[in-house]
Amino acid sequence: VIDIRKLYAESDAFTYDPGFTSTASCESKITFIDGDKGILLHRGYPIDQLAEQSSFLETCYLLLHGELPSASAFEQFETTITRHTMLHEQFDRFFSGFRRDAHPMAIMTGAVGALSAFYHDSLDIQDEKQREISAHRLIAKMPTIAARAFKYSVGQPFVYPKNDLSYSENFLRMCFAVPAEDYVPNPVLTKAMDRIFILHADHEQNASTSTVRLAGSSGANPFACIAAGIACLWGPSHGGANEEALNMLKEIGTVDKIPEFIQGVKDRKYKLMGFGHRVYKNYDPRAKVMQTTCHEVLSAVGDPNDPLLQVARELERIALSDEYFVSRKLYPNIDFYSGITLSAMGFPTTMFTVLFALARTVGWIAQWKEMIEDPSQKIGRPRQLYTGSAQRDFVPISGRA
Ligand code: ACO
């Protein structure tokens, strides 16, 4: 009989690190985070500068290529993305197979995975050109798929991409234009949308990005890997938190209910959604930009005195001064204000994580490309600490108690 404990003792040492709190899985040149200081840099550029001065497509170029584009390189990139916004017409039939009440994230997971069934000509991951075409296709088609999922869920006809609009204008038009109406996107909302996309573009080795890398490490095609990332993002501890944060604010309803709610959090009945982060033990720099964006959007199209915003502000004030939250370094994360903002822009809560997935696609694909192009890349294969039975002999069913 093999003694499993003895086997462990004799085998090569390995670390037991549940949740990967202190294990790096790769080298990367894309994104830097200093969680203690609240710093987030993409290719060296601070997130607040990108959110203020760049555009989402320019940030996509930066994440993919490592440098900000020249004017001509950007023009070429924008043209390429624009040329790939359409979906194969047969996708229509694929969409109509879903129930109308399906969660748009369920549709996204299926539809993005299905891209590999439609675009066979860019699946050779060893071919640099094909890797690039897949990246462009994903960035270009995600808004079209997301808008289609939205229109399908509300029973409205699909609006085709209009390629003389910017990336974010085009997306808003595909979501909110009703055909026959001449839709003019509100510039405040377009700017907010673009900024929200920039804020979500990449965040180094979070759960969904690690999922994309792990799926890709086996040689799976990029569309399949991104679908795996979308599935992971859907969870309420990750991308699903913005939906949960808004639901929580609605549940609290009014400022006078906050003390009772906070007590419930301290009694561990529930978590304060939109607070806390595995890496940031200081203010999430994206949350600051999101807070400003939230005010801009509410001033333009909503109610700056929205009761939900009042609840959010008061909750933030209390949490930042209450010993329970301060001692655990629980600061608002990006999801805290994004829910109120997206809701004011007209998106139902079920679309929040879809928008996150749309924006994060560039980060996922940049990380996937970096991994494939790394000569030291190996298939991801974590170890385990076995805690089951010791070896024992099989007992036929007639001999079991
Ligand atoms: N509300 C109340 N208490 C919390 C919260 C919260 N949101 N988050 C953590 N804590 C407490 C834990 O109970 C624990 O307390 P204890 O030491 O007394 O046991 C302590 O803070 C440390 O928490 P961990 O669970 O160890 O923190 P971890 O790094 O594993 O979790 C996570 C990070 C998952 C983000 C967590 O803070 C959480 O669930 N937050 C709410 C969901 C959320 O907003 N997610 C979005 C993350 S950002 C993103 O994906 C874009």
Automatic annotation (TrEMBL):
GO molecular-function terms, A-Z: citrate synthase activity
Keyword Transferase: yes
Gene that produces this protein: gltA
Tree of life domain: Bacteria
Transmembrane regions: 336-359
Catalytic activity field: oxaloacetate + acetyl-CoA + H2O = citrate + CoA + H(+)
Pathway: Carbohydrate metabolism; tricarboxylic acid cycle; isocitrate from oxaloacetate: step 1/2
PROSITE patterns hit by this protein: CITRATE_SYNTHASE
Protein name: Citrate synthase
Family membership noted in the UniProt record: Belongs to the citrate synthase family.
InterPro entries: Citrate_synth-like_lrg_a-sub (IPR016142), Citrate_synth-like_sm_a-sub (IPR016143), Citrate_synthase (IPR002020), Citrate_synthase_AS (IPR019810), Citrate_synthase_bac-typ (IPR024176), Citrate_synthase_sf (IPR036969), Citrate_synthase_typ-I (IPR010953)
